[in-house]
Amino acid sequence: MEKQFTTQRKWSAIVALILAMVVTFMAAIKSFGTTNSEELIVYDIKGSLERAYEEVVDDRFDFELPASEIETIKIYGNNDQLLLSIVKQKDGVIEDQNALRMLNKADYLSSFGNTSIYKVEE
After folding, report:
1. Would you say 117 and 74 are in contact if contact means Cβ atoms under 8 Å apart?
2. What confidence score (pLDDT) does residue 29 get?
3. Rounded Cα distance, 108 and 10, in Å
4. pLDDT digits (tens, 9 = 90+) for 25-65
5. Do residues 40 and 83 make contact, with C-beta atoms less than 8 angstroms apart?
6. Contact predicate 113/69, CB 8 Å
């Protein structure tokens, strides 16, 4: 019985070897043959450079400006003349008593950004 197994092993090894040789031979036949001449590749150099430049130089910058801690208060008179301009810290206190009195008399009109506008009725 042992002789039967060794014979089967020999035959299966021979079949595997023949199959490997056939596959290798068929691959060799397919790889040989007339080669097609490759077409010339023409590049649009100017267009390629423009696209590359656009990719490198991106006009969109993502950054945030730091919030300004300075507040400007402008007080105008009847003739729309600027009477007083106060620049102070955002949460700061106005120390000038005359400016504080004038601000308390003034009516609030508008604000834009860090600038507030008041008007005094004289």
Report:
1. yes
2. 82
3. 105
4. 888 887 776 666 666 666 677 788 888 777 777 666 666 66
5. no
6. no
Cα 58 from Cα 14, distance rounded (Å): 66
**What value, to the nearest 5°, has the Cα angle with vertex 74 and ends 88 and 113?**
70
Say if CB 9 and CB 16 are below 8 A apart: no
Please state the rounded mean pLDDT for residues 58-77: 77
Q: What is the mean pLDDT of residues 12-23?
A: 93
Strand segments, DSSP code E, in the chain are: 70-76, 82-89, 107-112, 115-119
**3-class SS at 64?**
coil
**pTM of the predicted structure, to 2 decimals:** 0.44
Contacts of 113 (CB under 8 A, 6+ apart): 68
